Amino acid sequence: MADIHKPDSVEALRDLVAGAASEDRPLAVRGHGTRDTVGRPVQAAATLDLSGLSGITLYEPEELVLGARAGTPRGEVEEALAGNGQEFAFEPPDLGTLLGSQGRGTLGGMIACNLSGPRRVKAGAVRDHFLGFTGVSGRGEVFKAGGRVVKNVTGYDLPKLMAGSWGTLVAMSDVIVKVLPRAQTQSTLALMGLDDATAIRAMSLALQSPYEVSGAAHIPADVLARSNGTQEAEATAVTALRLEGVGPSVDYRAGELGALLGEFGTPERLPEDASRGFWREVRDVLFLAGSDDAVWRISVPPMEGAEVAARIRARAPALCYYDWAGGLVWCAVPPAGDAHASAVRGALLGTTGHATLIRAPQEVRAAVPVFEPPSPGVAAVSRRVKEAFDPRRVLNPGRMYADL
């Protein structure tokens, strides 16, 4: 069993990474390990466990800024925010049920994965709220980037580079994020029985309206039937549009948006509890959790979402639903040696979309590119970035791509 190192200070973290670099000893970087099964298997001599770097170090609710050690449990941070009526505006998903993992992960892991929930259409992605960090490069060097305010950036905006790097460039010890007030209430308008293409037209119209829609998702009947354990004929597709804010504002906007969408039918209005439960299922991919299927996360221009899903279904049995008004497509496909990668990636040819394999057995993730294969130009830039931060390939080597 590989050794597990658990530093409790940035100095200890620096010494561990520097020692590994000097010995060409790769490290598997992790927080709570809730997403260890996403990405290619890392062949490492030891594990660098960052969960010992824990605790909130800065929280100024009136300034909408929070700083914490990278290994701080996400639940601890969200509890502190909730106590002040605040939240992460980008609505990070909890994929524990989908991936079969325990806990909700760490603050640093949330940033390193850069996964955002339904509110991304209004609030932006994780990287848009990531202000600064302290970390240790693969060279064993401590450095800081960014700061406590959005405009405190000179030179390269390194926080945006680290968001979505999956621990392959830097082992972060401390992070600073922007937080926002939590909406007083929410409600959801649900249009029933629309086909995928029509649903995307309705969601696009809603997002272009002045009514501040904070979530737009479409769940086809076959997905709902499988999730509920019923026959497809007993299920009805749901197209959902979320409104958040103070009560009178939500009521007014719901009325106006319902009238705007009249050509698509008369929407049903979900009460707050039902609305929150529905969007939790969308955010955490619970509709696709109850099986052994491989699960893909596909990002496309919203108006291409239905066509891409149709192309996948023409090549392989697949259950797909849509978030971000069609811009995010979650697809479950039956177990296969390649997780039906040729069908999924073939469906993206001619688009600007990309696909990530989120759930599959280790042997499949070792054989199939988990992240979208980069173009030659992007691959060359990625190699140069890796060389700059981690020339000895110490931090999570191969997690994203075999040669990085």
Shape: globular
The radius of gyration is 21 Å
Order of strands across the main sheet? 4-5-9-7-8
- Output the structural class: alpha+beta
Reported by name, the CATH topology of the largest domain is Uridine Diphospho-n-acetylenolpyruvylglucosamine Reductase, domain 3
Q: Describe the largest sheet.
A: 5 strands, antiparallel
Please identify, by name, the CATH architecture of the largest domain.
2-Layer Sandwich
Structural features:
Oxid_FAD_bind_N, FAD-bd_PCMH_sub2, about 400 residues, alpha+beta, 5-stranded antiparallel β-sheet, globular, Uridine Diphospho-n-acetylenolpyruvylglucosamine Reductase, domain 3
Task: Give a structural overview.
- This protein has 404 residues and is α+β, with helices and mostly antiparallel strands.
- The chain has 2 domains: 1-182 and 373-404, Uridine Diphospho-n-acetylenolpyruvylglucosamine Reductase, domain 3 (2-Layer Sandwich), CATH 3.30.465; 185-366, Vanillyl-alcohol Oxidase, Chain A, domain 3, CATH 3.40.462.
- Helix content is 31%, strand content 24%.
- The chain has helices at residues 10-22, 74-82, 96-99, 107-113, 120-123, 158-162, 196-208, 221-228, 247-260, 272-283, 305-315, 341-347, 362-367, 376-389; strands at residues 3-5, 27-30, 46-49, 56-60, 65-69, 86-87, 130-137, 142-146, 170-178, 180-181, 185-192, 213-219, 238-245, 268-270, 294-299, 319-323, 328-333, 354-359.
- The strands form 5 sheets. Strands 4-5-9-7-8 form a 5-stranded antiparallel sheet.
- Strand 7 (130-137) and strand 8 form a beta hairpin.
- The two termini are 24 Å apart.
- The model has no long low-confidence stretch (mean pLDDT 95).
